Amino acid sequence: MRLDLKSLKGRKNEGERTFSPEHRRKRTTQVVTFLFFVFLSAIFWFIQSLQMRFPYVLHIPITYDSIPPEVGLESHLPEFIEVSLEDEGNHILEYSIRGVNPITLHLKQHKGVNQGFSLTAAALTQEVRKRLSSSARITTISPASIEVSAYHRARKVVPIVVGQLPLVTQGYSLGEVELTPSEVTIFASAKLLDSIRFIRTAPFEEQILETTTTTKVSLLLPEGVYASTNIVQAHLPVEQLTEQTITLPITVKDAPSGYELRPLPSSITLHLTLPRSRYGEVRADLFEVSVNYPREDTHSTDDGQRELPLQVTKKPSWVHLIRLNPDRVQYVIEERRPSKPWM
């Protein structure tokens, strides 16, 4: 068997010519030319389609005058007008890209009394026509008209109460929060206002406080209630804590007539945690530690000693923590005998 080497060599040269640079340039030119004509055809199709008519749904936004909080509305105000229409493609493209100007409605008044918002079907159709091309054909308008009556809400001034507070870094305390304003005027039906005594603040955006902070916080308004303001300013004073000790006598409560309970010991040491700025305000008359007179002898320890628990019955609100040393005391009950009159 003989191999045709000349034939194999010819095929090899033919393959090299197929993938030569000149051949690749020719193929690239053909592809680019093809894509150009495809793109040109798409442009002609697009231009032709712009002259055709298509159905379209257009949403025209509605803007309203600022409604005072004392004015209530009988029903919901629509946010937009839905217009079903048919128009040429170029106008529909303009609607979808640029949109249309909103329809503005003003709060109508009669002799100083708010009447509400009103727009008849004819007036609404005219407003819609102003925003469309002359070639547009309107199919439907929804809603066909706008008629929302207004009424006067009752008002009431209530205090603002601080709600959930943020946490404070360990070793620091949060002082009294100052709200500005501290009161707010609310508007609602008279029946609803009768049940409201205060308005609470919403949770603060700050999670943990490290220094004194002044921030804004929203108000939590019940459904159907409107306010003269929805946001107030809050001043959150953060202060470092310190410790102090004070010794007090123990007070006995509810001792029956003719008996006296003597606590052992008769005084107690209080370990206080308080803001640094209050350190000089600590006085003995601001605190009280007491025991209750036992009605039954049920306070004996395992070794038979009688003890009573101590209770802090009076302290300033700015004291954060009190530790008693000791927290229980032994006691002795003595009977008081009335003195005999002199003969």
From TrEMBL:
Keywords assigned by UniProt, alphabetized: Membrane, Transmembrane, Transmembrane helix
Residue span of region Disordered: 1-22
Domain of life: Bacteria
Membrane-spanning segments: 31-47
Any matching Pfam family: YbbR
InterPro entries named in the record: c-di-AMP_regulator, YbbR
Protein name per its UniProtKB record: YbbR-like protein
Provenance organism: Porphyromonas catoniae ATCC 51270
Lineage, top ranks: Bacteria, Pseudomonadati, Bacteroidota, Bacteroidia, Bacteroidales
